[in-house]
Amino acid sequence: MLNADVVLDCIERGVRVLCLKKLDESYFPPEFDEILDKTDDVIELYIEAHKAFFDDYEKAAKKARKLEKTRDEVRDLYYKALGRVLNDEFPRGTRRLLNDTVRISIRAEEGIDYLKVLIARHS
Q1: pTM here?
Q2: Which is deepest, 5, 46, 54, 82, by most CB within 10 Å?
C-alpha cells in the first residue's frame, strides 16, 4: 500500500527541483514548464480526491479519473523532453531533474489507485 507520506516526499523533491530551476534555467528543456504545470495539477487533484473521499465518493472518483488523464499527459511530455536530453541537447543533470519531477505524478497515481479501491469498497 502506498501512503500519503511517499507522495509528500516526492512533492518535496519536486519543490527542490523548482528551486534549482530558479537558479539556472539552462538545465531545463522548454517542455519542463508544461511538465511542472501539469505536475502541479496532479498534486491538486490528488489532494482534492482524498478530501472528497470523506464526503462524496462520486466526486472523489471523478477527481481520480482526471488525475490519471493528467498523469498521462505528464508522461507524454516527459518522454518528449527525455528524447532531447538523451540526444545531449541539454546538460547531463537534466535527466535526473525530469525524473524527480515526473516521479511525483507516478506516486500520486499509485496513491489514487488505492483510493479508487477504497471508493469501490465503500460505495
Answers
A1: 0.78
A2: 46
Nearest to 41 by CA among 84, 5, 6, 77: 77
Of 47, 58, 45, 65, give the one whose Cα is nearest residue 123: 58
The H or E element containing residue 90 is none
> In a 10 Å sphere around its CB, with 0-12 CB exposed, 13-18 middle and 19+ buried, how is residue 6 labelled?
middle
Query: What residue ranges define each of the domains in the chain, with the CATH number in brackets?
Result: 4-122 (1.20.58)
Q: What is the spatial distance between Cα 90 and Cα 48, in angstroms, rounded to a whole number?
A: 35
Round to whole Å and give the CA distance between 88 and 109: 30
Element (H, E) at 36: helix 31-53
